[in-house]
Amino acid sequence: EDIAVICEASSESAATDWEIRNKVSSQKWKEARPFLLKNMLATQDPHPHCGCQCGKQAVVRCLDCLPFPFLCEDCDTAVHSRFVLHNRESLTGGFRQPLSELRQQMARLLPIQRPDRVCGCSTGNIHASPGRNVSVITINGRYNLVLPAVSCTSCCLTWSPTIEDIQRDGYWPGTMNFCTLYTTDVFQSFYDLKMAAPGVSLKAYIKMLDERAGKISADSFSKSFSEWVAVTYEVEKIFHKKSFDCPACTPEMLAVSVDGNRKLYRFKSNASTSEPGNFECVFIQKDEEVAEFVDNIHRQTNHISGKGSCGSSSWRAAKESSRKNTSKLDEEGLEIAVCRHGVLIGALNMFRGEIFAYPLFLQRMLADKAPGNITFLCSDVACKYFPYLSKVAQQCREMRKLLSMRPFLSVMHAKAHTGKCEIKWGGAFQEGAGSTIGEEVEQVNSFLSRAAITTKYMSKAGRTNMLTLLASGWNKKKVKNMGRTLSQRYTKTVRMLKEQVDILNATKDELGVDDDTLQLWVSDVQQWAEETDSGDGSLGALQARIEELAVIIKVRTQNLYKQTDSNKRRHKIRKVILDEKKRLAATICEYNNLAEPSKQIVSTDASVLTDAWPWNNISETAAADLHTKRTVFEKVMAVRRLKEEEMIISKEMQQHWTAMKAQSMMLATLSSNSSFADQPEDAQRGLQCLVLQKQTELKAEMVKVKGFYRRILSHQPLLEMDSSEEEMSEDDAADLDSSTSDED
Question: pTM above the 0.90 mark?
Fold first, then answer.
């Protein structure tokens, strides 16, 4: 097919048809490939036709010196005696190669600010001479330079740079003697790379840098990077910025989700000294406190290990085991707590598997942090955890306050529990939960797990530092996008509510029932879920069990493709359905052995599809069966949850805005007081500059957030900004409108 013919025949559609534009672009690249190849080969010529500006033969090529990259030896010395960090290439030897400083006779001084005077002499002049050697690591690689030594020609007093001078000019010391220096953009690039790809190792990053002029020490880089991150964190603490708090959940948090991540283990062979990490107890709680708490709980509750099964599913997280694993692992994973917006709140190291005492510790920590302000505790095994909590509260009076949190079985994990368990504990059917799914921790785990390939080989302190750094960076991203996220979630909720109301009304018309009947059916399903199955083997118990299993199988089969988007997840659900069918067949066989021949079940599949059981009489058949009631129940619950979600998001928007206003007031107070009078004068001036920067950034963020919220909370006085704050410009408003247009 001729592309040119298509373009001529469809000149108008080519501007809008992505497929045609893509074909045209591919064709142009294909045609240009021979020219690109020729140009790439031509750039490798070490003897270009153009020489140095002075007319001499060029021996050095420096792309940092554009538009005149080719230099002779004399011009290279004149230019790069000052600009020593330019990335230069030698044109001698028949091919281009990075110019190594080791082979240069000229001493190359570290580019750093030098004093105009070093003494009070009125007659002497200052002279800069080479000092001791220093290695400088930049994003272009390693440079072997020398520190400048500035001396007075009259009195011979000498000045040499200190750590203060080094940091002021954008370097960071590798050691306190700064024999090695790093430019801070190297650290920032590594941090950004870790946030984008947590699995990238530090050694792989260094290998990318050490191609130029010698090796770079991984240990020195790791230690220096950790100290740079720690000092950066101390600067953030000055502004009272809490890295592990959600502004939309402060002061009242609707739900917190806890779960274990067993991929974040660490080998015992990497156990190092007992030196604490720079972020001890910032994100990951102290191991000693957790171990003492676990031992105390097991001692007071006469600990007995459980099986951890619900229906046909076996849950590893519910298998309570008090024995520490004696394998080759030290930390076996991480137990994590996350709010419903995906913001990390806290974590602890696991040493005994996913025992209930670990989420109990986090629950107590959160209760102490926000007493009475957390409504739901989400868990994959809430049906097992909360009975355990009730048992612990009976023995430990200090744990009774935790019973104020309501159980919430994660929505997706509830599909693998029994039908009664899903209705009784499932988050989709909990009053006041809104559209919370309780699976937010899974999103965080998918991010942190990507770092497991490197953290499992780290020391204890190194692992703590890296995981805390990644968690803090994750939270920054979440908080930064909080305004956009809440506004999009609100718009989506309003749209879904309208759709679900229409679906419910259509169901009412189809069944010919009114609201009172729907409420009666909802009560019937809830009452059925509260009933305890009888294990006496009577006909009535077997009949109830058969009906329950039939409903569970039908619901799971119908939702197999509606609520799962991966073959791996569907495979697990199919295994659960197969187990349920086996249990149903066994129960039917047991029932047929006791029932009269006229009441026996002949075809299992037909009975499951039609819900026509032989023990149902005509009047009962005319009434709605359990499957119909449950279908209506789920639709009613969906409408109720969406109505709650609409109010919940409005409240969270108000809390987010209030938190931003409080941050603005704090910065204003910090800029006006003298809390850091003990700091040197230059440090105080630097702090004031940082406060001004933070205020400017926060003001811009508040303008953007107000644009997101103004259509939703326009009636709320909390959205009023101070008169000193600038209003949003027309361009900003247009950008905000276009960014939210995809929500409708």
Answer: no
